[in-house]
Amino acid sequence: MSALSLLDALPWLVAVWLFAVGLYGIATSRHCVHLVGCLTVCQSATYVLLLGIGYVRGAGPPVFYDHPPGTPAVDPVVQALVLTDIVVGAAVSALLLALAIQVQKRRGTLDPQALRPLRPPPSSLE
Amino acid sequence: MTPRQRLVLLGLAALVLMPAVMRIALALPAFGAPEAELGQAMNALVPGLRHVTNMVAAVNFDLRGIDTLGEEGMLLCAVTGTTVLLRGARGESGRERAGHLPGRPVTPRADATVLVCRIAATLTLLFGLSVALHGMTTPGGGFQGGVIVASGLLLLYLGEGYEGWRALIPPPVLAVLEGGGAVLFVLCAGLPLLAGHPALQNLLPLGEPKDLYSGGLMVVVNAAVALSVTGSFGLLLVEFLEETREPADDPVPEDTLPEDPLPDEAER
Question: Which residues form the Na+/H+ antiporter MnhB subunit-related protein domain (chain B) (predicted)?
Answer without folding.
Answer: 115-233
